[in-house]
Amino acid sequence: MESKKQLARLDGIKAEEKAKQYLIENGLTFLQQNFRVTVGEIDLIFMEQSQLIFVEVKYRNDSSHGYAAEQFTPSKRTKMLRAIHVYLQQQQVNIHHTNLRLDLIAIDSDKLEWIKNI
Question: pLDDT of 33-53, one tens digit each?
């Protein structure tokens, strides 16, 4: 029998895959998934024309603990921005000369919402 934590992780993996497929279907070019460093993580990384898109995916199967979009907290944003800096350094990309955007895919049960430029 799987624990609640294991089930939640599986739900998270499914949500990321759903978000990834949705963004590909909407014309974005997939680059990387689950970029993790000690300072934070990035769920999905895409390109749209010449713009790098960093995507956080949040999932809730019901709203009893709030909606998915509400789970993108200032703390989570800070960690994600730190991870983005590391990613850009590793790619030898200057953050000041790079067109980039931070997006959120919020999935509540079966409803997917793409919030651009959060």
Answer: 999 999 999 999 999 999 999
